[in-house]
Amino acid sequence: MPIDAAKALAAEPRSGEITWDHKDVQLYHLGIGAGVPATDPDELRYTLESRLHVLPSFATVAGAGSPGVISGLSMPGVDVDLATVLHGGQSLTIHRPLPARGAATATGRIAAVYDKGKAAVLVMRTEVADADGPLWTNDAQIFVRGEGGWGGDRGPSTRLEPPAGDPDRIVERHIREDQALLYRLCGDYNPLHADPEFAKRAGFDRPILHGLCTYGMTLKAVVDTLLGGDVSRVRSYSTRFAGVVYPGETLRMRMWHTPRSTTVAVSAVERDDAPVLADTIVEHG
Fold it and tell me: How many helices and strands (H and E) does the chain possess?
């Protein structure tokens, strides 16, 4: 069987050194749509090195690019076709505000393997620490079609009850036609996001946007809209990728806000509000 759950879970963690600087941070911010309008003081915090702060979701690409997905597929016990793989969900815990320049050790391992019947889900956990201690923990849920059915643990349900009442805020963000081409320069070169022929082989009409690009766009909208632009207030951020996004579409973000957390539902406006991100929670101070 292409996925050997016991072997994957027993594999030794892999550690490596990662580095980043202001150029990596600025590229990431541009990749998720920052800088519009270009001279807006609020946007310059994402694009100008003399004012730079780091959106916490930068952690998903810092020093590596594809956060746990590609690295998870190279772990012992995992041998699958990339065309059967989707990024099912992502959770991020921030232990300290991210610096604009850093060097750290990233340690990754398969933390769980779940049997969903018609698919398998791998949880690739990456823990990152620098000389001063832990910085962040990333969990990437990797959905592999056609690889379930061996009778393993189905895992916990991640579905949450939808918030009651009308959202406190609704924000829309347009996605550029070249957004995926720009975002992939952060390091995730999966051809699904650029090559039309590969996208068709994976079952899509055309290349789709990276789920983590939508993830970053959504966090930026929450920070800018509800947290006064203060990236240091973010404690954790989790989502389930409920549907695809195509470059050129418009994201509609419905936000339910409390003093300690914001729940978000994201949909694609042009496809009758088709769900994009679900079970999305930003915990903050």
Answer: 7, 10
Give the amino acid at 221.
A
| Angle ∠(55,87,72) on CA atoms, nearest 5 | 95
Task: For 19-74, write each residue's pLDDT tens digit.
Answer: 999 999 999 999 999 999 999 999 999 999 999 999 999 999 998 655 456 666 77
**Mean per-residue pLDDT for 208-213?**
96
Residue 153 annotated among the catalytic residues of the structure:
no
- What's the mean pLDDT in 258-277? 98
Catalytic (active site) residue 188:
yes
- Banded model confidence at residue 84, pLDDT cuts 50, 70, 90: confident
Residue from 24, 188, 224, 279 carrying the catalytic annotation: 188
Q: Which residue of the set 29, 87, 193, 257 is catalytic?
A: 193
Q: What is the DSSP letter of 180?
A: H
DSSP E strands, the chain: 14-20, 85-94, 102-115, 119-130, 133-145, 169-174, 234-241, 250-257, 261-268, 274-284
Which element (helix H / strand E) includes 30? helix 22-31
In three-state secondary structure terms, 68 is coil
* 272: CB partners within 8 A, 6+ apart: none
The residue written with tokens 């990662």 in the block is 18
Q: What is the pLDDT of residues 241-257, one digit of tens each?
A: 999 999 999 999 999 99
